[in-house]
Amino acid sequence: MITFAPGPSKVYDALPNYIQDAYAQGILSANHRSAVFMNLYRDTEQLFREKLQLPEDFTLLFTSSATESWEIISQSLVEQASFHVYSGSFGKKWVDYARHILPSTQGLKIAANQSILVADLEVSSEIDLLAITQNETSNASQVPMEVLKSLASKFPEKMIAVDTTSSMGGIALDFSLADVWYASVQKCFGLPAGLGILLLSKKAKEKVARKGELGRYNSLSFMLENAASYQTHYTPNVLGIYLLYRVLQDLDPIAQVDARLRQRMANLEKIVAQSSVFKLLVDNSVTRSTTVAAIAAEEQVIVAVKKAAEKVGMQLGGGYGPLKSSSFRVANFPAITDLEFGRMVDFLGSYTHH
């Protein structure tokens, strides 16, 4: 059964070999203060620079999940309040978490089909961080790099934090356009859940140093202090980090991965456009995700198509939250091969509801 669920999603086919190598090399029992771990951390960060074009002045930190970053960002980087622009369930959860920590947190909800109109965006002076959900997994919408560029240009004095949970490792991201980026490995990195990635710019690190917070377990100052010597402040998921290192080693340069995923998504969109039973949930191509597709249909069609897919060895992802009964989702992540994705597209193309 091949899963097209948008996370946890299909893992890379080479994963059993990576795990066997980790066992053989003693990685599974490596101490996180040892040279073995420190070299692994350093090499993984270097691969982020080589394969994903991470700028030299950024630091890679490890967390347990992307959602853990919501709390870390509010506690360590926001002095007064953050302003969140979002369109779906995960963006809303981020606002809600942030508001528990800082009650003056503000949010602007836009439609999945709506572009962020940066020119019209009014943000008060008390806001010191803008929060953007670049890829909204629940409704398969995304924010293009041009919008982040406009935000950075209009609000140079504010920090920008970006949720790329379902896109990092799958599309080309211009990390220079924001200060904080985060993700999890169970989506575009094609790995089992249990490891989060947090990337901080020089500007973000300088702000942490200015705040100089101490005494909190998950504070960025504590995390960065350890990262300076390629260590973590807690006993980390060493296997997860090793597997990420191996995936990055084998990954094509991100520009190639990006082009491949965009072509595949274009094939899927074409098939859906020709269908009499399906339509794309996000009809604005500018705000439509490259890595997750949400397809709308009548409820009985959704139930039937998911059953029909399972009969031919494919698991389609369910709709999320309020969209559960009106949509299904399919992942377009790099670990899914072109052949597998093509099979799924052909299946949807030949599907007629009886």
Question: How would you explain this protein's 3D organization?
Answer:
- This protein has 354 residues and is α/β, with parallel strands linked by helices.
- It has two domains: 2-8 and 253-350, Aspartate Aminotransferase, domain 1 (Alpha-Beta Complex), CATH 3.90.1150; 15-250, Aspartate Aminotransferase, domain 2 (3-Layer(aba) Sandwich).
- Helix content is 40%, strand content 17%.
- It has eleven helices and 15 strands.
- The protein has a seven-stranded mixed beta sheet.
- The longest helix is centred in the C-terminal third of the chain and has 21 residues, at 254-274.
- The mean pLDDT is 95.
Strand neighbour order, sheet with most strands: 2-10-9-8-5-3-4
Fourth-tier CATH superfamily name of the largest domain: Type I PLP-dependent aspartate aminotransferase-like (Major domain)
The CATH architecture of the largest domain is: 3-Layer(aba) Sandwich
Per DSSP, the total helix count is 11
- What's the CATH C level of the largest domain? Alpha Beta
**Gross morphology:** globular
Which spans of ≥5 residues are poorly predicted at pLDDT below 50? none
User: How many structural domains are formed by the residues?
Assistant: 2
Helix/sheet category:
alpha/beta
Distance between the termini: 24 Å
| Annotation, overall tally of beta strands | 15
Please give the radius of gyration in angstroms: 20 Å
**How do the SSEs run, as a string of H and E?**
EHHEHEHEEEEHEEEHHHHEEHEEEH
Mean pLDDT: 95
In percent terms, what proportion of residues is strand? 15-25%
Assign the CATH topology of the largest domain: Aspartate Aminotransferase, domain 2
The level of helicity is 25-40%
The largest sheet is: 7 strands, mixed
